[in-house]
Write a structure and sequence with these properties.
By secondary structure, the protein is an alpha+beta fold. The chain contains two helices and four strands. The protein has a four-stranded antiparallel beta sheet with strand order 3-1-2-4. It is elongated. The two termini are about 20 Å apart. About 20% of the residues are buried.
């Protein structure tokens, strides 16, 4: 992971369904691909939109950055992987 370049990150978001009809479904994990300058920035993008989820970096690196570029992602943007 380069410090001065935009890197690709796979972020996992764990969400619990503890209310309503889906209460019995338990935990749901969504994996995102994010292009960001740092892991902190990548996590903050998802925390902004999904504040109740538990987010963690699952993987990062240039190969993920290349995959993000093929998908047309730009820095600061994420998409479900």
């Amino acid at each position: 992971m380069g410090i001065n370049t935009d890197d690709g990150f796979f972020i996992e978001s764990r969400m619990t369904n503890d209310a309503g009809e889906e209460a019995d479904r338990g935990e749901r994990v969504i994996r995102w691909i994010v292009l960001a300058a740092s892991a902190d920035e990548a996590l903050s993008l998802l925390k902004r939109d999904y504040p109740d989820a538990d987010h963690s970096v699952a993987d990062s690196g240039r190969d993920i950055r290349a995959q993000a570029a093929r998908l047309g992602l730009v820095p600061g943007v994420y998409q479900r992987a």
